[in-house]
Specification:
Transferase(Phosphotransferase), domain 1; 13 helices; Prot_kinase_dom; non-specific serine/threonine protein kinase; Kinase-like_dom_sf; alpha+beta; three-stranded antiparallel beta sheet; 3 domains; binds adenosine-5'-triphosphate; Phosphorylase Kinase, domain 1; five-stranded antiparallel beta sheet
């Protein structure tokens, strides 16, 4: 039988013991030791690690068998093994988090089917690799969920459909409702922490980052300790402030838009406008999009305040859909009208208002004409003039889209350009200053008209589609 050594830096962790293939020997043998580093392999005399599942922030997870249970039940053994050079207080904090996972699983796991059960939590003291040194490890044994996490599913199957994410949303919201009612905030919801068992059942994993709120009332808060997954944590958690049930709802919504788009969080968040820009990546029903956007609002008090509120909103969406289409294929049961209606669509304003757009066009037309006149005076070739003028104009337009040029720049730059041409008559192409003004204003008006027409067409098309 293969037995995996759990010592963090064991050079050859795979061991093979032919005698353990015999079930009676496996049940009765006292202990086995790693043939390379001497680490005891049968943890707590009972759990036999067989495979490394992965390494996370606080340690490693192993697939193991419980030799004391008939049928050698599979389980997951997590070992506390913080990475990096931590200070004593950081180490104590990390150990506390690990112990907390055990505590929370013992409180929640046995009471909710979709949270793994806790089987054991124990320390092991062993001889260190250096002579005369002792090492202490902590182990947490929990129910093994045989399946795939949603991050793995995403890699394998690509984008989730609206129906698929609705199922994930509903299932995890129900688990979160239970968790929050117990006064616990998960704080690390993400696709890799949601596991789908082979029979389709979804499980919420990894309670290592949880925070217990002292007051069990919903909406009450706990302070954050800075443990979170980048991209999934809302502003209050990133700032190390208080966390709320709506902190988990935010991370769940990030999870859902990642599943819908198969893009990373950083690709969906526009840091410049401080907004999630996911809607243009995928088409879902406007109600679901509105619900997700409300979960994603930066201010915790503007989001849904509980998992139940989101479930109500989703159910009223399903009820609406079923009356609208009278379709038996809608899986969500019809519910009474939503007592807490979804707020109107949160700000999804375009990056530029119409006034800004037309102002930018006026600037580009005016400046473009001045540049063309000045260039033509210098090179006397219309082809070269037009080529260079288009490149410069392109750069100016690009700079506007990035807002490197905006507001007063749109007045200052043409004023300076005009002043240069005014005071250097050889740049007026022999036209005289009046003709220059006429052409520049003309260029400006043409650009405004073209932009207005394109904007109108764009608006009409987006209404029709
Ligand atoms: N109860 C479980 N059943 C099945 N697989 C599990 C279970 N718990 C964890 N795993 C798997 O073990 C691997 C390591 O999990 P672990 O929780 O230690 O770290 P992580 O979730 O990958 O990272 P982090 O803790 O930094 O979020 C992951 O692939 C995870 O899917």
């Amino acid at each position: 039988m293969e037995v995996y050594c759990t010592r963090p830096r064991c050079p050859r962790p795979q061991n093979y013991f032919a005698d353990l293939d015999d079930i009676t020997t496996l049940k009765t043998t006292q202990q086995k030791y790693c043939t390379t580093c001497g680490m005891p392999l049968l943890l707590d005399g009972r759990y036999v690690p067989v495979k490394l599942l992965g390494r996370g922030g606080f340690g490693a997870a192993f697939l193991a068998r419980d030799r004391r249970i008939p049928g050698m039940r599979q389980c997951v053994v997590k070992q506390f093994q913080p990475a990096g050079n931590l200070s004593l207080s950081q180490l104590q904090q990390a150990q506390l988090m690990f112990e907390r996972e055990a505590e929370v699983l013992s409180q929640l796991g046995n009471d909710h089917e979709q949270i793994p059960d806790l089987f054991a939590f124990f320390p092991v003291i062993v001889n260190g690799l250096q002579p005369g040194q002792q090492d202490q490890f902590f182990y947490l044994v929990q129910e093994y969920i045989d399946g795939q996490n949603l991050e793995e599913e995403l890699v394998q199957q690509g984008k989730f459909s609206e129906q698929q994410v609705l199922e994930v949303l509903q299932e995890i919201l129900k688990v979160l409702k239970f968790v929050h009612h117990r006064g616990i905030i998960h704080r690390d919801i993400k696709p890799s922490n949601i596991m789908r068992r082979r029979d389709g059942r979804l499980f919420l994993l990894d309670f290592g980052a949880v925070k217990q709120v002292t007051n069990v009332a919903l909406g009450s808060a706990a302070s954050s300790t800075g443990i979170y997954s980048m991209g999934f944590a809302p502003p209050e958690q990133m700032a190390g402030g208080q966390v709320f049930p709506s902190t988990d709802l935010y991370a769940l919504a990030v999870t859902i838009i990642i599943l819908l788009t198969n893009k990373e969080a950083v690709q969906l968040f526009d840091a410049y406008s401080n907004q999630w820009k996911w809607r243009m990546q995928v088409t879902v029903s406007p109600r679901l999009a509105d619900i997700l956007d409300k979960m994603l609002l930066p201010a915790a008090n503007q989001r849904f305040q509980s998992a139940q509120e989101v479930l109500d909103a989703l159910n009223s969406q399903a009820a609406q859909a079923s009356t609208q289409f009278n379709s038996p294929s809608v899986t969500l049961p019809p519910q009474p009208p939503n007592p807490s209606p979804v707020v109107p669509r949160p700000p999804t304003q375009p990056a530029f208002s119409t006034v800004e757009l037309l102002g930018g066009a006026a600037f580009s037309g005016f400046e473009g004409a001045l540049i063309a006149i000045a260039l033509f005076s210098l090179v006397k070739s219309s082809i070269v003039t037009l080529s260079i003028a288009f490149v410069i104009l392109g750069i100016l337009i690009f700079a506007q889209t990035r807002r490197w040029i905006e507001k007063f720049d749109l007045l200052i730059i043409p004023t300076i350009s005009f002043a240069i041409i005014f005071f250097l008559p050889f740049l007026q192409g022999g036209l005289g200053i009046k003709a220059v003004v006429f052409l520049a204003v003309g260029g400006s008006l043409v650009a405004i008209s073209l932009t207005a027409v394109f904007r109108l067409i764009y608006k009409l098309l987006s209404l029709l589609l």
